[in-house]
User: Fold these one by one.
Assistant:
Number 1:
Amino acid sequence: MGLFGGNKNELKCKKCGTILSDSERLKRHQEVAHNKKKEKCRVCGTEFNTQEDLRKHKKNCK
Protein backbone atom coordinates (compact mmCIF):
# COMPACT_ATOMS: atom_id res chain seq x y z
CA MET A 1 0.00 0.00 0.00
CA GLY A 2 1.36 3.46 -1.01
CA LEU A 3 0.96 6.87 0.52
CA PHE A 4 -2.53 8.05 1.49
CA GLY A 5 -4.03 4.60 1.26
CA GLY A 6 -2.58 4.57 -1.97
CA ASN A 7 -3.13 4.05 -5.48
CA LYS A 8 0.11 2.65 -6.87
CA ASN A 9 -0.35 4.92 -9.90
CA GLU A 10 0.17 8.04 -7.77
CA LEU A 11 3.16 10.15 -8.77
CA LYS A 12 5.26 12.41 -6.58
CA CYS A 13 6.70 15.74 -7.71
CA LYS A 14 10.47 15.57 -7.34
CA LYS A 15 10.71 19.30 -6.55
CA CYS A 16 8.15 19.63 -3.74
CA GLY A 17 6.81 16.18 -2.90
CA THR A 18 3.23 16.86 -3.96
CA ILE A 19 1.37 13.61 -4.71
CA LEU A 20 -0.68 13.52 -7.91
CA SER A 21 -2.92 10.84 -9.34
CA ASP A 22 -1.59 10.66 -12.89
CA SER A 23 1.11 11.90 -15.25
CA GLU A 24 -1.07 14.61 -16.83
CA ARG A 25 -1.79 16.16 -13.44
CA LEU A 26 1.90 15.94 -12.53
CA LYS A 27 2.86 17.70 -15.79
CA ARG A 28 0.33 20.49 -15.19
CA HIS A 29 1.42 20.86 -11.55
CA GLN A 30 5.06 21.21 -12.60
CA GLU A 31 4.20 23.81 -15.26
CA VAL A 32 2.13 25.93 -12.89
CA ALA A 33 4.04 25.53 -9.63
CA HIS A 34 7.63 25.29 -10.78
CA ASN A 35 7.94 26.78 -14.27
CA LYS A 36 8.85 30.43 -13.88
CA LYS A 37 8.77 30.92 -17.64
CA LYS A 38 5.44 32.21 -18.89
CA GLU A 39 3.98 31.20 -22.25
CA LYS A 40 3.29 34.34 -24.28
CA CYS A 41 0.79 34.89 -27.10
CA ARG A 42 2.64 36.19 -30.16
CA VAL A 43 -0.44 38.10 -31.34
CA CYS A 44 -1.52 40.08 -28.25
CA GLY A 45 1.28 39.52 -25.73
CA THR A 46 -0.89 37.98 -23.02
CA GLU A 47 1.08 35.61 -20.76
CA PHE A 48 -0.07 32.20 -19.54
CA ASN A 49 1.22 29.72 -16.97
CA THR A 50 0.89 26.69 -19.26
CA GLN A 51 1.09 25.81 -22.94
CA GLU A 52 -2.41 24.36 -22.63
CA ASP A 53 -3.82 27.70 -21.46
CA LEU A 54 -2.03 29.48 -24.32
CA ARG A 55 -3.38 26.93 -26.82
CA LYS A 56 -6.94 27.54 -25.62
CA HIS A 57 -6.43 31.32 -25.80
CA LYS A 58 -5.08 31.17 -29.39
CA LYS A 59 -8.39 29.79 -30.66
CA ASN A 60 -10.04 33.15 -30.01
CA CYS A 61 -7.15 35.62 -30.32
CA LYS A 62 -6.95 37.59 -33.53
Number 2:
Amino acid sequence: MTRLLILCTHNSARSQMAEGLARRAAQALDVDLEVHSAGTEATRVKEQAMTVLGELGIDLSQHTSKTLFDLPDPWNFEYVVTVCDRAAEACPAYPAKTTIRHYPFVDPSGGSLERWRTVRDQLQVQFQAFVQALKEGRPVPEGYEVSPAVPADQPHPEPHRAG
Protein backbone atom coordinates (compact mmCIF):
# COMPACT_ATOMS: atom_id res chain seq x y z
CA MET A 1 0.00 0.00 0.00
CA THR A 2 1.20 3.49 -0.89
CA ARG A 3 0.88 6.14 1.82
CA LEU A 4 0.08 9.81 1.08
CA LEU A 5 0.17 12.68 3.57
CA ILE A 6 -1.43 16.03 2.71
CA LEU A 7 -0.18 18.90 4.89
CA CYS A 8 -1.63 22.36 5.46
CA THR A 9 -1.38 24.89 8.27
CA HIS A 10 -4.51 24.14 10.33
CA ASN A 11 -5.82 20.93 8.75
CA SER A 12 -9.19 22.64 8.59
CA ALA A 13 -9.96 23.26 4.91
CA ARG A 14 -7.67 22.53 1.94
CA SER A 15 -5.92 19.46 3.37
CA GLN A 16 -9.20 18.01 4.64
CA MET A 17 -10.86 18.48 1.25
CA ALA A 18 -7.80 17.05 -0.53
CA GLU A 19 -7.83 14.00 1.76
CA GLY A 20 -11.45 13.23 0.94
CA LEU A 21 -10.95 13.83 -2.78
CA ALA A 22 -7.73 11.77 -3.00
CA ARG A 23 -9.35 8.90 -1.12
CA ARG A 24 -12.34 8.97 -3.46
CA ALA A 25 -10.10 9.07 -6.57
CA ALA A 26 -8.08 6.11 -5.27
CA GLN A 27 -11.25 4.10 -4.69
CA ALA A 28 -12.65 4.99 -8.12
CA LEU A 29 -9.39 4.05 -9.88
CA ASP A 30 -8.76 0.99 -7.69
CA VAL A 31 -5.43 2.33 -6.40
CA ASP A 32 -4.22 0.95 -3.05
CA LEU A 33 -3.63 4.33 -1.41
CA GLU A 34 -3.76 5.16 2.29
CA VAL A 35 -4.52 8.90 2.58
CA HIS A 36 -3.96 11.10 5.63
CA SER A 37 -4.04 14.84 6.21
CA ALA A 38 -2.54 16.92 8.98
CA GLY A 39 -1.62 20.48 9.87
CA THR A 40 1.31 22.22 11.44
CA GLU A 41 -1.30 23.19 14.06
CA ALA A 42 -4.61 21.49 14.89
CA THR A 43 -7.84 23.51 14.98
CA ARG A 44 -11.18 22.25 13.62
CA VAL A 45 -12.59 21.15 10.29
CA LYS A 46 -14.44 24.10 8.77
CA GLU A 47 -18.14 23.77 8.07
CA GLN A 48 -17.71 25.08 4.53
CA ALA A 49 -15.26 22.25 3.74
CA MET A 50 -17.86 19.75 4.95
CA THR A 51 -20.58 21.48 2.93
CA VAL A 52 -18.77 21.60 -0.43
CA LEU A 53 -17.48 18.04 -0.17
CA GLY A 54 -20.94 16.92 0.94
CA GLU A 55 -22.22 18.31 -2.37
CA LEU A 56 -20.06 15.62 -4.03
CA GLY A 57 -21.21 12.89 -1.65
CA ILE A 58 -18.02 12.94 0.44
CA ASP A 59 -18.69 12.99 4.19
CA LEU A 60 -16.14 14.85 6.33
CA SER A 61 -18.33 14.89 9.45
CA GLN A 62 -16.12 12.35 11.22
CA HIS A 63 -12.87 14.11 10.29
CA THR A 64 -10.90 15.94 12.95
CA SER A 65 -8.12 18.47 12.64
CA LYS A 66 -4.81 16.88 13.62
CA THR A 67 -1.08 17.39 13.55
CA LEU A 68 1.53 15.11 12.09
CA PHE A 69 2.12 13.61 15.53
CA ASP A 70 -1.51 12.41 15.72
CA LEU A 71 -1.01 10.13 12.71
CA PRO A 72 0.03 6.48 12.68
CA ASP A 73 3.68 6.06 11.62
CA PRO A 74 4.09 9.78 10.73
CA TRP A 75 7.56 9.44 9.18
CA ASN A 76 6.71 6.62 6.80
CA PHE A 77 5.02 8.12 3.74
CA GLU A 78 5.87 7.56 0.09
CA TYR A 79 4.37 10.96 -0.76
CA VAL A 80 3.97 14.20 1.19
CA VAL A 81 2.02 17.01 -0.48
CA THR A 82 1.82 20.49 1.02
CA VAL A 83 -1.17 22.55 -0.07
CA CYS A 84 -0.19 25.93 1.40
CA ASP A 85 3.03 27.93 1.56
CA ARG A 86 3.24 28.02 5.38
CA ALA A 87 3.03 24.21 5.55
CA ALA A 88 5.71 23.91 2.87
CA GLU A 89 8.01 26.13 4.92
CA ALA A 90 7.31 24.16 8.11
CA CYS A 91 7.34 20.71 6.49
CA PRO A 92 9.73 18.45 8.40
CA ALA A 93 12.54 16.64 6.66
CA TYR A 94 11.48 13.25 5.35
CA PRO A 95 13.69 10.33 4.31
CA ALA A 96 15.05 10.37 0.77
CA LYS A 97 12.51 7.70 -0.25
CA THR A 98 9.67 10.20 0.30
CA THR A 99 8.56 12.25 -2.71
CA ILE A 100 7.53 15.75 -1.65
CA ARG A 101 5.32 17.97 -3.77
CA HIS A 102 4.02 21.48 -3.13
CA TYR A 103 0.65 22.45 -4.61
CA PRO A 104 -0.15 25.86 -3.02
CA PHE A 105 -3.91 26.35 -3.24
CA VAL A 106 -5.59 29.60 -2.25
CA ASP A 107 -7.14 29.55 1.23
CA PRO A 108 -10.93 29.70 0.75
CA SER A 109 -11.51 30.79 4.38
CA GLY A 110 -13.44 34.03 4.62
CA GLY A 111 -14.64 33.73 1.04
CA SER A 112 -18.01 32.91 -0.47
CA LEU A 113 -19.26 29.36 -0.80
CA GLU A 114 -18.55 29.72 -4.53
CA ARG A 115 -14.90 30.38 -3.67
CA TRP A 116 -14.88 27.17 -1.58
CA ARG A 117 -16.35 25.27 -4.53
CA THR A 118 -13.70 26.65 -6.87
CA VAL A 119 -10.87 25.54 -4.57
CA ARG A 120 -12.59 22.16 -4.09
CA ASP A 121 -12.82 21.69 -7.85
CA GLN A 122 -9.14 22.61 -8.29
CA LEU A 123 -8.16 20.14 -5.57
CA GLN A 124 -10.27 17.48 -7.26
CA VAL A 125 -8.52 17.92 -10.61
CA GLN A 126 -5.07 17.97 -8.98
CA PHE A 127 -5.54 14.89 -6.82
CA GLN A 128 -7.32 12.99 -9.60
CA ALA A 129 -4.21 13.59 -11.73
CA PHE A 130 -2.01 12.55 -8.79
CA VAL A 131 -3.86 9.25 -8.30
CA GLN A 132 -4.06 8.64 -12.07
CA ALA A 133 -0.26 8.98 -12.26
CA LEU A 134 0.11 6.41 -9.47
CA LYS A 135 -2.22 4.03 -11.30
CA GLU A 136 -0.26 4.38 -14.53
CA GLY A 137 3.14 4.11 -12.83
CA ARG A 138 4.13 7.63 -13.89
CA PRO A 139 5.75 10.28 -11.67
CA VAL A 140 3.14 12.31 -9.79
CA PRO A 141 2.61 15.88 -11.05
CA GLU A 142 5.32 18.31 -10.04
CA GLY A 143 2.99 21.30 -10.35
CA TYR A 144 -0.56 22.27 -11.10
CA GLU A 145 -2.66 20.33 -13.57
CA VAL A 146 -5.05 23.29 -13.84
CA SER A 147 -4.79 27.04 -13.50
CA PRO A 148 -5.67 28.05 -9.93
CA ALA A 149 -8.31 30.65 -10.82
CA VAL A 150 -10.40 31.95 -7.92
CA PRO A 151 -13.60 34.02 -7.95
CA ALA A 152 -13.12 37.78 -7.73
CA ASP A 153 -14.83 38.13 -4.32
CA GLN A 154 -11.38 38.00 -2.74
CA PRO A 155 -8.37 38.89 -4.90
CA HIS A 156 -5.16 36.97 -4.36
CA PRO A 157 -1.63 36.90 -5.70
CA GLU A 158 -0.77 34.15 -8.18
CA PRO A 159 0.56 31.17 -6.21
CA HIS A 160 4.05 29.85 -6.76
CA ARG A 161 4.18 26.93 -9.16
CA ALA A 162 6.43 23.99 -8.60
CA GLY A 163 8.53 22.64 -11.44
Number 3:
Amino acid sequence: MKLSARNQLKGRIVEIVKGATTSHIRIDVNGTVITSAITNEAVAELDLAVGKTAYAVIKASSVMVGIDD
Protein backbone atom coordinates (compact mmCIF):
# COMPACT_ATOMS: atom_id res chain seq x y z
CA MET A 1 0.00 0.00 0.00
CA LYS A 2 1.29 3.45 -0.91
CA LEU A 3 -0.18 6.72 0.33
CA SER A 4 0.50 10.34 -0.52
CA ALA A 5 0.49 11.29 3.17
CA ARG A 6 4.05 11.60 4.47
CA ASN A 7 3.21 11.37 8.16
CA GLN A 8 2.85 7.60 8.54
CA LEU A 9 3.62 6.56 12.10
CA LYS A 10 4.03 2.83 12.74
CA GLY A 11 2.97 1.57 16.14
CA ARG A 12 1.07 -1.05 18.10
CA ILE A 13 -2.63 -0.91 18.99
CA VAL A 14 -2.94 -0.66 22.77
CA GLU A 15 -6.68 -0.06 23.16
CA ILE A 16 -9.92 -0.18 21.18
CA VAL A 17 -12.99 1.43 22.74
CA LYS A 18 -16.14 0.73 20.72
CA GLY A 19 -19.11 3.07 20.85
CA ALA A 20 -22.49 2.85 19.14
CA THR A 21 -21.10 3.78 15.71
CA THR A 22 -17.51 4.91 16.28
CA SER A 23 -14.46 3.32 17.86
CA HIS A 24 -11.48 5.06 19.42
CA ILE A 25 -8.24 3.33 18.47
CA ARG A 26 -5.14 4.08 20.57
CA ILE A 27 -1.80 3.40 18.88
CA ASP A 28 1.49 3.50 20.79
CA VAL A 29 4.18 5.05 18.57
CA ASN A 30 7.51 4.81 20.42
CA GLY A 31 5.92 5.76 23.76
CA THR A 32 3.57 8.41 22.41
CA VAL A 33 -0.06 7.31 22.17
CA ILE A 34 -2.11 8.61 19.25
CA THR A 35 -5.89 8.27 19.28
CA SER A 36 -8.03 7.99 16.17
CA ALA A 37 -11.81 7.87 15.86
CA ILE A 38 -13.01 5.57 13.07
CA THR A 39 -16.23 3.73 12.30
CA ASN A 40 -16.92 0.35 13.84
CA GLU A 41 -17.28 -0.95 10.27
CA ALA A 42 -13.70 0.14 9.50
CA VAL A 43 -12.43 -1.64 12.63
CA ALA A 44 -14.06 -4.85 11.43
CA GLU A 45 -12.87 -4.49 7.81
CA LEU A 46 -9.28 -3.87 8.93
CA ASP A 47 -9.53 -6.67 11.52
CA LEU A 48 -8.03 -4.39 14.15
CA ALA A 49 -7.14 -5.86 17.54
CA VAL A 50 -5.06 -4.93 20.55
CA GLY A 51 -1.45 -5.94 20.01
CA LYS A 52 -1.54 -5.68 16.21
CA THR A 53 0.77 -3.36 14.29
CA ALA A 54 -0.97 -0.40 12.66
CA TYR A 55 -0.11 2.95 11.13
CA ALA A 56 -1.40 6.34 12.24
CA VAL A 57 -1.59 8.27 8.97
CA ILE A 58 -1.87 12.01 9.48
CA LYS A 59 -2.89 14.34 6.67
CA ALA A 60 -3.69 17.87 7.82
CA SER A 61 -4.71 20.84 5.74
CA SER A 62 -3.88 23.30 8.52
CA VAL A 63 -1.97 23.50 11.78
CA MET A 64 -3.07 25.72 14.66
CA VAL A 65 -0.58 27.53 16.87
CA GLY A 66 -1.16 28.48 20.49
CA ILE A 67 0.76 30.16 23.29
CA ASP A 68 0.54 30.35 27.07
CA ASP A 69 -0.81 33.64 28.41
